[in-house]
Amino acid sequence: MVDVVAPIPGLVARVPVKEGQRVNAGDTVVVLNVMKTEVNVQADTAGVVKEVKVKEWDEVDIGTVLVVLDSR
Question: Are the C-beta atoms of 23 and 42 separated by less than 8 Å?
Fold first, then answer.
């Protein structure tokens, strides 16, 4: 399992993936709103979305787990 974590604190603007969805390395899995700027958080590796840990409007800090990927 691979955790995709928040690189900076912000507000979750969008979660464009769903559990069970296959993603490639570089795909956006969460969009954060940071000081009125959208920041795309991307998967570092390909895999299947095992769990989405956040929803729109959640506030997150650096290191908060956003999505868990099964990279097997």
Answer: no
Q: What backbone phi and psi angles, to 5 degrees, belong to 64? A: -65, 130
CATH fold for the domain made of 2-70: OB fold (Dihydrolipoamide Acetyltransferase, E2P) (2.40.50)
For the residues 11-19, what does the mean pLDDT come to? 97
Q: Answer yes or no: are the C-beta atoms of 41 and 7 closer than 8 Å.
A: yes
pTM metric for this prediction: 0.92
What secondary structure does DSSP assign to 34-49, as a single string? ETTEEEEEE-SS-EEE
Task: Indicate the DSSP class of residue 29.
Answer: E
Residues 35, 40, 41, 46, Cα dihedral to 10°: 180
- Whether 70 and 17 have beta carbons less than 8 Å apart is answered as no
